[in-house]
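In response to a reviewer's request, we include the raw inputs and outputs for one of the modeled complexes. The two entities were modeled together in a single run.
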Amino acid sequence: MTATATSMSDEDLREEVRAWLTQNWKDHLPAPTPWTTSPALRAWLGKVVDARWAVNRWPVEWHGRGLSDTQAKIVEQEFHAVRAPGAGQDKTHFYAISALTFGTDAMKRQLLRGMLAGEITMCLLYSEPGAGSDLAGVRTRAERDGDDFVVNGQKVWTSGAASADYGMLIARTDWNAPKHRGISFFFLPMKQKGVEVRPLRQVTDESHFNEVFFTDARVQAENLLGELNNGWRVLQTALAYERSVMGEAARGPRRNSGRAANDLIALTREAGRLSDPVLRQDLARVMSYRRVNALNNARAKADLETGTSSPIMSLGKLAMSRILHEEARLRTALLGAGSLLDGAAFPRADDANFLTLNAYFTSIGGGTDQIQRNIIGERVLGLPKEPEVDRDIPFREVRAG
Amino acid sequence: MPAPAARCYPSAMTITAEDRVAMTDAVRRLFADQHDESVVRANMETRSGFNAAFWSALADLGVTGLMVDPDHGGLGGGPLEVEAIMEEAGAALLGAPLLSSFMATALIEGSGDSDAKSRLLPAIAQGRIAALALTGDAGTWTEDGVALIADREDTALNGHASFVLHGANAELLFAIARTVDGFGVFEVAPDAAGLKSMPLPTFDRTLRLARLTFDKVPAHRLDAAGWSAVARTLQLGLVALAGEQAGGARRVLEMTTQYAKVRYQFGRAIGSFQAIKHMAANLLLETESAISTARAAAAALAHTANDADELVALAAFTCADAYDRVAADAIQMHGGIAFTWAHPAHLYLRRARADVQLFGTPAAHRERYLKALGA
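The model returned the following structure tokens for the whole complex.
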């Protein structure tokens, strides 16, 4: 069982996974996300990790099997076929990927198994009130004190902060270096006296995000990821992942009342507007955006499989912003004065109103549409960067406000 | 009578993906070597609108007979190959009647008339110029828009047809006309008595359109071909046009991005200004969406997929609107230089505006899209 499968044939490997799943997979559990977990799910994930199916491409010493991408996909296909979660985390669990790539051996020993098994949960400590689009402008400070760093400052837009065991923190460690070269990256223990989490009431009147305040919070020096002051590079990996995920999916209506809730044609029919020629033009245009995005994503995936890098990947998030804003606009137009109302008793209005506001989750979160257009312009089309007045001066001289 | 749908597009069987890439590469090289902007501008001043030597070179590569089956001297390609080749043609602003060759092939294949096939398909493969009279002055390319009427014996046509691509220069002419039993497809000799063709002045100077009037013009009705054969021909035409639009959009965006890197104002490349950069990013989304939908529509048509109607309609309005937007914004992003006749940006806008109207408007395609979705 502990032998690596590198010398195994594809057929033998497939046999082995199937046999293991037949013997062990009995439940039906929701797929894990970085922020949700349950005892049953944790027990299952622990089993998957210990049987070395969680991260097949990783080396044997870190819970993997050192498999090729092709063989790892065989394992993932078999898990997928019986809807068992837990395999392929070497592609999806970006906290664990960051720990493996940049962490010390001590940190990996301490955290990796727990992260993969869903026992250790994580949150992102990136944005600050003064560092949103300009993330490299963070002012939360981490100062060396013996074997620890002492952290002071404030983070915002942190999901799952109240339950998280660790936060992936970017903090300023050198105020004399230029902004990108004085940032370090830590795994900070969240359950300590110096960390205060306050839920944030969002524009949608929900609370999924938090503010996090640090007052002399402590993190061990060995929880530094990558080199001191080299955190910006570590961060890029995680950010790219976040953006690609946001282009593929977004929340739908929250009331979900009836089949029509998710079907714009049915909603139009229900509103008695399906024969209105002007509205039909609008409906066709809005519906096409989602269909076209699916075709773009399918083409990007096909390109990736043939080894061609595709410019389309970076367009998904921008496309999704337009889809969400335009669909919400159409839903509102269908209701007219009905959109004045709200709440569970008026599910159509509640959906239209909620989706109108929640569309900003995608067009602002993970980098605004405007930042995304800069990235596309610069990295895909090769246009020159805007001159940055604060790029090469010591950070303590950078104007803030 | 053979089932037309099954026989329509043989490409899935005969041409591999590798063949398609190789063929497209060869055509791209031919355009790069022999069809630059100066050729486009020279063609604009000619009656035919194209360069006969270049047309022969395309025929030699097999492109004019791309959709003709090998038994009749062609390559046996289908919508996937047509779309790929039209991306290149669109990028190079080809003015030659390639679109008409493809559509005429589809019409003849779809007619199920074996005599017509053996007489006409080899001629198309060899590069004879085909024209299709499909709509009247209304320019709707729908059943309502047909303004030709056949006599009771189906031997002569009266009325008119307009917006006929290469209609004044055709060597092979096909017309759809109202008949006693609905609609029929007719073969007409371009020099037949009673047929007058008048070239129309066009906004896109690379385009050749004609209005044809018919006064008891002798015509030969092709077997078993009614509106359904025309509808399939138009589907193929829309996929070809979508390819042209996607290829044109990509080329004009490349041109504009390149200019934004080398044009300096205020001591900076203009592409470093977010005002320009953000327009470029938006246009990339439009362009890639056009490419994705054009190719998806071609694939659906090639495999006679259930969602072919939906995808062709989607590609038709997505690509039309995308090309129009990209070409229009390209002029704005270039600034004053693109307000001159000498700069090529307007050539793309003229083509994009023409392509928006051909074979139905984006609004009409959006209606068809909704109908295909059951709305």
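As requested, we also summarize the result in words. The beta strands of chain A are 122-125, 141-145, 148-159, 166-172, 183-189, 195-199, 209-220, 224-225. The domain at 122-229 of chain A is CATH 2.40.110.10 (Butyryl-CoA Dehydrogenase, subunit A; domain 2).
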